[in-house]
Known about the structure:
By secondary structure, this protein is an all-alpha fold. It has a domain at 22-63. 43% of the residues lie in helices and 0% in strands. The protein is extended and about 45 Å long. The two termini are 32 Å apart.
Amino acid sequence: MEEPRGMNSSLGRVAAVPATSTAEMDELRRRSWAANGVAVIDVAALRDPTERSIVTRIANRLFGPRRQR
């Protein structure tokens, strides 16, 4: 796998580079669930609208609403 490149700008040397790839994040999610019972769910990855709604409502209740961008 190719290493991520920095930004091509004057700020490129100080701009953040993602620490993990998508595959690494998926593995981290699996290990987190298996070892600790902690589920890290990307709501955008849920295709079923009912499931997405359920997860969103639970997260809003536990952590408060998301910030609007």
